[in-house]
Specification:
By secondary structure, the protein is α+β, with helices and mostly antiparallel strands. It folds into two domains: 143 residues, Fructose-1,6-Bisphosphatase, Chain A, domain 1 (2-Layer Sandwich), CATH 3.30.540; 107 residues, D-Maltodextrin-Binding Protein, domain 2 (3-Layer(aba) Sandwich), CATH 3.40.190. Strands 4-3-5-6-7-8-9-10 form an eight-stranded mixed sheet, sandwiched between helices. The protein is globular and about 50 Å long.
Length: 262
């Protein structure tokens, strides 16, 4: 399959999932709690399932030998050379609140390593994509290459995390607190959008805990393609999820790791 055909296929995944999801946004729909009343609230909606279903159907029809790992419908063909990693709505809490800080994550791994990622925000008409070597923005304001901002000092950095309450009590939350206290500004509730803003040079640092592969795989090639660094808190590969730190520069990443593991 040629590069052009592949790009067209991924764009079709984004377009069709967006068409399935958007009718639910800022409308009445059914929301369930996957945490079954526990804290924090872990919502899933009809839109999540509709978006993933249409992507899985298109992948299975076009690439029957590929595997798929999705948030809503599990894994099939996990041992395949190529595995698609899907999160139809990353940022469901924002979605149900009518806030556009959510996106559809479409990732592809080869031999377990992320090789391509796209974040689609259909309400805003924005697409952020990357292959680990370069990254690109396409949207209402045109097309441009994405490049991170090369801050070296935490005191100058803008940081983001989805919700501080997602960090575990004790050491985990204290570690995050040390980094937050060292930065200039912190923003919350950004989910996948924070990583794309890091790739775009607007945010310098993203710190998260308890992520699943479908929360991060698509974002790794975007951040790395823009010149950033993404690892676990102990400096390991981020593709398996867990506690994640992404930074716009190697020096900033090293500074954050030092505080996280201090």
């Amino acid at each position: 399959m040629s590069v052009v055909d592949f790009a067209r296929f991924v764009d079709e995944l984004a377009t069709q999932s967006g068409q399935a999801i958007l009718p639910f946004f800022r409308a009445a729909f059914i929301t369930e709690d996957k945490a079954v009343g526990a804290k924090p609230f872990d919502p899933v909606t009809e839109a999540d399932r509709a978006g993933e279903a249409v992507m899985r159907q298109l992948i299975s029809r076009t690439f029957p030998s590929h595997g798929i790992l999705g948030e809503e419908f599990g894994t099939e063909g996990e041992g395949a050379e190529y595995v698609w990693v899907l999160d139809p709505i990353d940022g469901t809490r924002g979605f149900i609140a009518g806030l556009p800080l959510w996106g559809t994550l479409i990732g592809l791994t080869r031999g377990g390593t992320p090789c391509y990622g796209l974040m689609h925000q259909p309400f805003l008409g924005e697409r952020f994509s990357g292959d680990g070597q370069t990254a690109q923005y396409r949207g209402p304001h045109g097309t441009r290459r994405l490049l991170t901002r090369r801050r070296s000092s935490l005191s100058e950095a803008i940081a983001a995390t989805t919700d501080p309450r997602l960090f575990g009590e004790g050491r985990e939350r204290e570690a995050y607190g040390r980094v937050e206290a060292a930065t200039r500004l912190t923003r919350f509730g950004t989910d996948c959008y924070a990583y794309c803003m890091l790739a775009a040079g607007q945010i310098d640092l993203v710190i998260e805990a308890g992520l699943k592969p479908y929360d991060i795989v698509a974002l790794i090639p975007i951040v790395e393609g823009a010149g950033g660094v993404v690892t676990t808190w102990d400096g390991g590969p981020a593709s398996g999820g867990g506690n994640i730190v992404a930074a716009g520069s190697k020096r900033l990443h090293e500074a954050a790791l030092k505080l996280l593991n201090g």
